[in-house]
Amino acid sequence: MNKAIQTWMALDELHGTLNQRLEKLLRARYALTISEFAVISVLDKDDGVGLTIDQLSRSVNLSHSAVSRLVARLETCNTIEKRSGDSDRRSTVVRLSEQGRVDYKGTLPEITQIIEDVLQGNKEKMTFSLT
Questions:
Q1: pLDDT by residue (tens digit) across 35-76?
Q2: Which of 35, 54, 82, 99 is most deeply buried (CB count within 10 A of its CB)?
Q3: How many CB atoms are located within 10 Å of the residue 72 CB?
Q4: Phi, psi values for residue 85, rounded to 5°
Q5: Domains detected in the chain
Q6: Where would one find the signal peptide in this protein (predicted)?
């Protein structure tokens, strides 16, 4: 089999395993989906000014409407805050609430452990070489 195809298949399998483990933890312990966690993670990196729905959409590789739905749900949980954009009142700016930031930081030890466990358990698959 072509080396590039083998690498792609190994990455896809690793991605699937990691997402399954993370999704299971996020749903059971925090009532979150992977996509919601991705939005929260992107907002945590933000400097507090906030991001538009379009910026979030590009960052997490989801459609504008999917991000809008996620944002609405996260807002009802007091995880994020929305406001109109300063320069364009038609745009919505989203940022992580203080409670959302605290909650996010609280998830990181378990999330990090799962990521490290999956990567450690798949070390042999992670020696990618396309040459």
A1: 999 999 999 998 778 999 999 999 999 999 999 999 999 999
A2: 35
A3: 11
A4: -65, 150
A5: 3-124 (1.10.10.10)
A6: none
What global pTM score does this model have? 0.86
Mean pLDDT lowest for which of 1-10, 22-31, 107-116, 122-131? 122-131
pLDDT value of position 6: 85
d(Cα 26, Cα 65) in Å, to the nearest integer?
A: 22
Sign of the Cα pseudo-torsion (63, 65, 70, 74, in order): positive
Residue with token string 């590009």: 58
